[in-house]
Amino acid sequence: MAWQRVVMKTVVMTETATAPLSIAIALFDRVTMLDAIGPYSVLAGLPHSEITFLAEQPGPVMDSNGRMAVVAHAAYSEMVDPDVIVIPGGVITVPMSREKTHPIIDWIRHVHPGTVRTTSVCTGSQLLGAAGVLNGVPATSHWYVRDTLSEFGAIPTDERVVQQGKIITAAGVSSGIDMALQLVADLQTDEVAQAIQLNIEYDPDPPFNSGHPRCAPPAITEMVSAGFAGALERSGDQAS
Amino acid sequence: MAWQRVVMKTVVMTETATAPLSIAIALFDRVTMLDAIGPYSVLAGLPHSEITFLAEQPGPVMDSNGRMAVVAHAAYSEMVDPDVIVIPGGVITVPMSREKTHPIIDWIRHVHPGTVRTTSVCTGSQLLGAAGVLNGVPATSHWYVRDTLSEFGAIPTDERVVQQGKIITAAGVSSGIDMALQLVADLQTDEVAQAIQLNIEYDPDPPFNSGHPRCAPPAITEMVSAGFAGALERSGDQAS
Q1: Which of A62, B36, B45, B78 has the most CB atoms at less than 10 Å from its CB?
Q2: Which residues 6+ apart lie within 8 Å of B32 measured at CB?
Q3: Domain residues of chain B, as ranges?
């Protein structure tokens, strides 16, 4: 039909006229993988974009549980001007952002001025903080370490997704899905975000109401806090 | 302190007394990766368990977008008696379950009688159906293909997580997180599931209400349906 041909021609012309939106998801050893894969699963539905997984070097990157590896396409240093960066977290980011020697921190500092959006999930915001991009910026993180963002000059904010200008930080782990849907609506349209949400059937229905200290049973919050404290202590030992 | 030593000793004795719960997540070329990684991210928090990623052969397995690969630890054939199996989906499962030649189908048929729980996410239930384990069983899938489960003798059920005895099927993509939390509560305790939910801060807050045809704008449902139909057609071409 004639109108279909017209629409297709318009789309093709638009797509050849501009480069695809380049999205870099930056992995590192002991990353919490859902922080990266939640946003990936949403952003992969974004028309006219290309996603690249980065790491210190190309190849498999092991996660925080030591049971899952995702293959990075390229080294951080190979991608100098991504449009969007997604920085996932993991307990290991806490010693990483204290020591400031990991190359991801220099890379964030280097590419951030040129991005369209700089985003993080969970304790990925610790790495943004260590790179110096959160000074004076309202930001969030995993609830257990959120307040420590003030050490980087950030303004800790207890919301699931916090956007200030081009910087978007998300809360713990699973919040990356919500963040990425907001990012899609922000960069393209509400309709594209709604279509992606329907495609991944994101109609959440957790069997418990225990996803935030606000609603979790206090004994559960105490137990998870103790577990987090122990993991932090061990990760510090490993990194030093 | 003395009580700490006692607790630790008890834990060690329990753990040496029984083998860990073995969980197999079975990947295949063109899998929808969040179907696998959602449950992984929950089940990795299950005490005294071990997760293994399987595929036709060990090594990287590419996802449905062709932009992400997860490394499989072993071949299906190497794991003959997993306690829990997780079968993710992807558009490709539709031709796979029609043709019934993919080795994952034989593997499911072979291991299912010995599992404690047999689970699927999204169109992974098509593979369970092709393996003959859904006959007379209420089950779900991604909303777009849910009703076709009747071709395998299943009873299509429009719920996010459907459990019948030891078989648990979940709806599209992101529903694997809800399914896995229910599975943890089912295998261990509500408290363990609540702790994992709090740890991954699963306090969902999508920016739109568009995760199911029941609530999505009709034009969005129409658009996603058309996209799914096209992808199905292409996947059939690729598989044949």
Answers
A1: B36
A2: A41, B63, B64, B88, B89, B90, B91, B122, B123, B173
A3: 19-203
B174 and chain A in contact, CB less than 8 A? yes
Q: A23 by DSSP, 3-state: which?
A: strand
CATH 3.40.50.2300 for domain A20-207, yes or no, is no
Q: Considering the entire predicted model, what is its pTM?
A: 0.92
Q: Which residues of A194-227 are buried (b: 16+ CB within 10 A; e: fewer)?
A: bbbbbbbbbbbebbbebbbbeebbeebbebbeee
Q: What is the CATH number of domain B19-203?
A: 3.40.50.880
Q: How many CB atoms lie within 10 A of CB B12?
A: 10
The pLDDT tens digits of the residues spanning A100-147 come to: 999 999 999 999 999 999 999 999 999 999 999 999 999 999 999 999
Determine contact, residues A107/A77, Cβ cutoff 8 Å: yes
Residues from chain B that touch A216, judged by Cβ atoms under 8 A, are: 194, 197-198
Q: Which residues share a beta bridge with B120? A: B87, B169
| B226 in contact with A, Cβ within 8 Å | no
- SS3 state at A212: coil
Is the CB of residue B184 less than 8 Å from the CB of residue B43?
yes
HSE-up (13 A, CA, CB side) for residue B98: 11
Residues of A in contact with B90 (CB under 8 A): none
- Interatomic CA distance for residues A57 and A55, integer angstroms: 5
> Could you give phi then psi for residue A190, rounded to 5 degrees?
-60, -40
